[in-house]
Amino acid sequence: MRARFYSQGEDHYKLDPDLKAILHTFAPGLPQEELSAFGKLVGEEVLEVAHHVDQDAPPRLQMHDLDGNRIDRALLSPAQKTLLEKLRPMIRPAYEGRGWPLHYAFGYLLADGGLYCILTITHQVAYALHKYAPEHEGVKRDLLYGPAFGATWMTEIQGGSDLGANRTVARREGNAYRLYQGDKYFASGAGLADYAIVTARPEGAPAGPKGLGLFLLPREVEGRLNFTVRRFKEKLATRAVPSGEVELEGSLAYPIGRLEEGIYYTLENLTVSRLANAAAAMGIAKKAHLEALFRVRRRTAFGKTLLQHDLIQHDLLEMRLRQVGGTALAFLAIQAFDQAWEERPPYSEGYHLARLLSHLAKGRTAEHASAITALAMELFGGLGFLEEYGVARWHREALITPIWEGPANIQALDMLEAILKKRAHEPLLAMLGESPRAQAEAHKILKKLQEEGPWYAKEALRALADVVTVYALEKVAAEPFPELAELYARRFLKGETLPPSAQRPELYDPWSSLS
């Protein structure tokens, strides 16, 4: 596989000194041996299996068994099934008292959108049961320790991110409910999930998002299929996770917690997956960055290696600034969530801050990942556009990160709601008090947001994210992060060009410290 990936067989944690510095800052004390072992698993097995699934063996839908019974089961490559069980332990840390940063660090290193999606939606079901439905402890254990998989089916064909438009109706039947008129149109994990959490409106509940309840939907009830999968979708990337269309008509489901709080539980779950999206976006970007770092050392053009050319050094600095900036922003948001995740409605200002940071991180990391992976393709030249090599896939994978868990417009509107209704900007400004420059910039952005409202919200999302990124980078003491923070501020906050004084290996080449 080294013919496809330069990083095949390598320890991907060892190759990433910038990640180590960021984790040391925002999650000190993580087990280095575990992270290194996981990095080796990624380099030695994940790269090969994920590429095989993407190119040759995506999941297929088997709708009937030999006797003609409807089963709607996803058929996975044996290699993917084996790998998923090796990866399953990465979803357990928070539930074993080890915190969220370790899980998200594993997610960053895994950096395969399809595989990580399967694992994320599995533990999102466990998350809801852990906090709000302890009567399903057995289901939670099967999800975390095997053999079950989970899914989160929230949106519907007619509304998408507009959850208030959902039509699925929940009709009470004893201690459970039957779900009707459900068309979960973009259902990740369809055909694979043994349990899903789904949104539905109990009969008599008000219209809009606050009328939605959250339910646990088993795949089978008394040995019979409890819902149907209409089809799997053909996707540009994330092919390892089967995504399909699920129909709910008379499906048995169990209420989670208080039904009138269903929208809050749903938004909590979205925060979990938005942080996963942020970590994965920067992990995918890093995979492309690693390939580029190998490439510029090996490829010769015009009498010298690519690494020796001025413009290549400029490109590498641009990539590194985006990479460290997005990664620091993501793990700052993860740190805030780790401190507040056990809260229940109504939430503290600490939780609202964590939610606000998740919107900033989700939106900006997706932009960085798309830019980094595109530039990596360019540095490979024509080879970067060929599917037979690995770098092209990283760009395809990165392109889902702006869309999953709500595109930038949704993140901007949710950010605006968190500011206007929850006053989440107040703890944000207090946090930024450690950096007068960042706090002053944030005040300017918030003032303009107040004046212009939704029209400016998307630009405010990006601008606030960059302010918080500078703050996060300033907190990383390891060299050369103080200078990288200044360069990030110059490039993205001020919109200025990078100065010639930054043309130094310790700035544009993260591996200069390893040599």
Automatic annotation (TrEMBL):
The keyword Flavoprotein applies. Residues 9-88 form the Adaptive response protein AidB N-terminal domain. It comes from the Bacteria. Pfam families: Acyl-CoA_dh_1 (PF00441), Acyl-CoA_dh_M (PF02770), AidB_N (PF18158). Residues 261-419 form the Acyl-CoA dehydrogenase/oxidase C-terminal domain. SUPFAM superfamilies: Acyl-CoA dehydrogenase C-terminal domain-like, Acyl-CoA dehydrogenase NM domain-like. Keywords: FAD, Flavoprotein, Oxidoreductase. Residues 151-249 form the Acyl-CoA oxidase/dehydrogenase middle domain. PROSITE patterns: ACYL_COA_DH_2. GO terms for molecular function: acyl-CoA dehydrogenase activity. Its cofactor is FAD. Belongs to the acyl-CoA dehydrogenase family. This is Acyl-CoA dehydrogenase. It comes from Thermus scotoductus.
